[in-house]
Specification:
Order of helices and strands: HEEEEEEHH
Strand content: 15-25%
Number of strands: 6
Number of helices: 3
């Protein structure tokens, strides 16, 4: 099995190795829903890298940091460095990444659910106004019910 060798200069989602990586992830049971390749060259620990971000159906992200030689330098899973045992065999490495994604899925989903998202400054929620409107409706209904009850009492009193 030959390893994936990315073209550092022409790295894009249309790259043959990028398409194969997505295919290997799909075979391992993790469907890639979005692929993105950064246009900037970054330096990490003195090594020039380009990043390929893979987003999966459960919203987890894997970032492949690719060296100028075209091989993978580092892997980030949901923003954290993921050490890989099978560095010489990319298919086995992808299987390790998918296993790590499966193992951390519930914790990642809890983290996403707990994240508080604040609306932008210019947007106001309707909740305070709705409480006011509903309270007024409730009070109006109480008055209407009391009025109907008094009419019923008057009608019953007149017939008796």
């Amino acid at each position: 099995m030959k390893n994936l060798l990315f073209s550092f200069e022409d790295l894009s989602v249309k790259d043959k190795a990028a398409k194969q990586a997505a295919k290997y992830f799909a075979r391992a049971g993790a469907n890639v829903v979005q692929q993105d390749v950064g246009t900037q060259v970054k330096r990490t620990a003195g090594i020039s890298v380009r990043e390929m971000t893979l987003t999966f159906a459960d919203s987890q992200q894997v970032v492949l940091r690719i060296k100028q030689t075209g091989d993978i330098y580092q892997i980030l899973l949901n923003g954290k460095v993921l050490p890989i045992k099978a560095q010489d065999n990319h298919v086995d490495a992808i299987a390790e990444i998918v296993a790590a994604m499966d193992a951390g899925r519930s914790a990642y989903q809890k983290k996403l659910a707990a994240a508080q998202v604040k609306p932008p400054a210019g947007i106001h929620t309707a909740a305070p106004k709705m409480v006011e409107v509903l309270t007024k409706k409730r009070d109006d209904l109480k008055v209407a019910i009391a009025d109907v009850r008094s009419q019923i009492a008057q009608t019953e009193g007149a017939t008796a």
